[in-house]
Write a structure and sequence with these properties.
Elements lengths: L1 E7 L5 H13 L10 E6 L15 H13 L4 E4 L17 H7 L3 E2 L6 E5 L5 E5 L7 E11 L3 E3 L15 H6 L3 H15 L3 E11 L7 E11 L2 H12 L7 H8 L8 E2 L23 H14 L10 E3 L8 H5 L5 E4 L2 E4 L9 H5 L5 E3 L2
Parallel strand pairs: 1-11, 2-3, 2-7, 3-4, 7-9
Antiparallel strand pairs: 1-10, 5-6, 7-8, 9-10, 12-15, 13-14
Helix pairs in contact: 1-2, 2-3, 5-7
């Protein structure tokens, strides 16, 4: 059985965070860290101010470090790699750089050394060598929606082990939700993650993972099985099973088994958030909803519905982060405006994630 602890947590007060983390650990299978080197992988999509709730709150990282030290960890590393990581990147605005300094841990730059991994789906991808040089890996994710994958959690958090712009080609190779889910699961398996924690004190709803709006959730989730956390997150958000592509792919490949998930404290089914602003499936007509699936089952055909293309509004500041990150090269600057080639666009929404001012939307 995979025990997942869900514990009420009302604030980022350090004393409360520590108390909740210890309760989570006491009710789950926490790894033995005595004398070992531990890598903490928070979610740092971009170095955004902590109040935007885009990144893992530094108080959770801080108290986790102290707990690891109390349990005899020999060395603790903290690291992540945003999609547009610059030289000598450190997470200053989100507060994690100060936490690393305060706790006397070590920030590890994932771009310095990487090696190629072959995923079970057949793709080859470079991942940081940091995971080769540690004994224990802990994913510390953020409770957020995700424009492509509906929600993003502890499994997808490990996509950050792929350094910088090496992530972008993965979207081009795997443009559908199902194919990208296989990539995410493959990377997660290669990460050998031992434990996972989700910061759900303040989460994000709406146009996540970067341009949604903050919402008080009031929990911390933890488990040795990251999939049990991500399943609980999706249920709490109000998603149906069909809107859990990463978990569905993992179940189909026998990577995880939902029937083994156990919630000894609070049950996710009892914590569904009323009126939570989810990412919705594209609306379908009678033909695509009922008739087309019949023929795809009969003839073994399968094709994902066309997702909406991103739209650019007048608040764009022409930073061109979207142009740099776009794996399909579907964006360019024309007459001081971002222009999109919708035929070239693969609907990966990397541009939407990277926009610092919320100038990109994804609408029907």
């Amino acid at each position: 059985m995979s025990d997942c602890a869900i514990v009420k947590c009302d604030s980022y007060d350090n004393a409360e965070i520590r108390k909740v983390l210890i309760e989570c650990i006491n009710n789950t299978s926490f790894p033995n860290v005595e004398g070992k080197c531990v890598l903490i992988k928070p979610n740092i999509l971009s170095d955004a101010p902590v109040e935007k709730a885009i990144t893992t709150n530094p108080a959770i990282v801080e108290e986790l470090v102290y707990i690891l030290k109390d349990r005899g960890a020999d060395k603790i590393l903290v690291g992540d790699s945003p999609g547009l990581q610059g030289p000598l990147f450190k997470p200053v605005q989100c507060g994690i750089a100060d936490t690393v300094k305060k706790t006397e841990t070590e920030w590890v730059d994932f771009t310095k050394e990487s090696r190629q991994h072959e995923l079970y789906c057949g793709f080859k991808v470079n991942m940081t060598c940091a995971i080769d040089n540690v004994d224990v890996v802990i994913s510390v994710a953020k409770f957020k929606t995700h424009q492509l994958m509906f929600s993003t959690g502890c499994v997808k958090n490990m996509f950050g082990l792929v350094p910088g712009l090496n992530k972008s080609p993965m979207h081009l190779k795997a443009p559908s939700r199902d194919a990208f889910a296989a990539v995410i699961n493959g990377i997660f398996l290669e990460s050998h993650t031992d434990y996972a924690i989700m910061d759900a004190v303040i989460g994000m709803e709406g146009a996540g993972p970067a341009n949604g709006h903050q919402r008080k959730i009031g929990y911390i989730l933890a488990s040795a099985d990251a999939y049990s956390i991500d399943y609980a997150e999706a249920v709490m958000m109000g998603y149906q099973k069909k809107q859990m592509p990463i978990i569905n792919e993992a179940v189909n490949k026998k990577i995880t088994d939902i029937s083994n998930f156990r919630y000894p404290l609070l049950k996710p089914q009892d914590l569904v958030i009323n009126g939570f602003d989810k990412i919705e499936d594209r609306k379908t007509n009678l033909f695509s909803a009922l008739i087309l699936p019949y023929f795809t089952r009969i003839f073994g055909l399968r094709k994902e519905k066309k997702r909406p293309a991103p739209k650019f509004n007048s608040s764009c500041i022409l930073c061109q982060r979207c142009v740099k990150i776009c794996p399909a090269k579907a964006l360019q600057v024309v007459d001081n405006k971002i222009r999109i080639d919708e035929k070239q666009c693969i609907r990966c929404y990397c541009c939407h994630e990277m926009c610092p001012v919320g100038a990109i939307s994804v609408e029907e």
